[in-house]
Specification:
Structural class: alpha+beta
Number of domains: 2
Largest sheet: 8 strands, antiparallel, barrel
Shape: globular
CATH class of the largest domain: Mainly Beta
Distance between the termini: 82 Å
Number of helices: 3
CATH architecture of the largest domain: Beta Barrel
Strand content: 35-45%
CATH topology of the largest domain: Lipocalin
Order of helices and strands: HHEEEEEHEEEEEEE
Radius of gyration: 22 Å
Length: 264
């Protein structure tokens, strides 16, 4: 009996030590503390060269060769006054911008949380303006390739791709329907706007609104834009990912997209 109790005690101790070791490994080697980007990035020489070298993409092109969905009919709105951007069109400078998620996660046995980040540079899109806001006759949209999203942990990436079902739904597409806050013109001074539309993610279409911060490169007409939104996994029928039951994520996830767009 004493032997059994001793053996049981050792097994319990080993289990506790294993959990502690897993927690220490997560805290010191896997745990991340990524933060949301706060301002639109500066336009670099690489962006300028890429904008000058790349032709305007087809309006209907999307990562993976899939056509982007048709824009829903809707009116646009402005944030006061008329803009001089009537008829202006911009295209995303491919390979220079990026999109990423920020997902709070925690180890099951610890109260401490961290923020994981997965990023892709596969972003395409076009933007079309009138004096009042968006041009309803031309589709303003951007598409993000989900299959290439990667963090610094392959196990996390595997769970995230499973949750997003990227083999079945390799892209996410946002089609704008309303823009609020369009200035008379873009300058080097950052302005904030609200861009509302339909996000097609995981086979679900849902209206979302992005906070968009935009500034113009002083040396060119290239615009730098940072778009930020937040939603729940359940909004798009996504099962929250976890890593072997030890690491789980919270329900809310934040998306950010850093775009550089050049006159089309």
């Amino acid at each position: 009996m004493f032997f059994l109790r001793s053996l049981l005690g050792r097994l319990v101790l080993l289990s506790v030590l294993a959990v502690a070791a897993a927690g220490a490994g997560w805290y010191f080697f896997i745990r991340e503390d990524n933060k949301a980007q706060q301002v639109a990035a500066d336009v670099t020489d690489d962006v300028r060269r890429a904008a000058a070298a790349s032709p305007s993409p087809a309006a209907s092109a999307a990562p993976g060769g899939s056509p982007a969905p048709s824009a829903p009919a809707a009116s646009t709105g402005a944030g006061g006054g008329l803009s001089s951007l009537r008829g202006a069109s911009y295209r995303v400078v491919e390979g220079q911008g990026s999109a990423w998620y920020l997902a709070p996660e925690k180890l099951a046995s610890l109260p401490t949380t961290s923020v994981a980040k997965g990023t892709t540079k596969e972003v395409r899109g076009e933007f079309h303006f009138t004096a009042e806001g968006l041009d309803p006759a031309r589709k303003t949209t951007f598409t993000v390739g989900l299959a290439s999203i990667a963090s610094d942990q392959s196990r996390r990436d595997s769970r995230m791709h499973q949750a997003l079902e990227t083999q079945k739904f390799p892209t996410a597409t946002f089609t704008a329907t309303r823009l609020v806050g369009l200035p008379a013109e873009f300058t080097a001074q950052e302005v904030e706007m609200q861009l509302t539309g339909i996000l097609d993610l995981h086979g679900v279409q849902k209206e979302v609104t992005w906070k968009v911060q935009v500034k113009k490169d002083a040396a060119t007409n290239i615009l730098s834009g940072l778009a930020t939104t937040e939603f729940k996994y359940s909004d798009f029928g996504i099962t929250k990912p976890d890593i072997a039951g030890f690491v789980t994520v919270e329900e809310n996830v934040q998306l950010q997209v850093q775009l550089f767009v050049a006159p089309a």
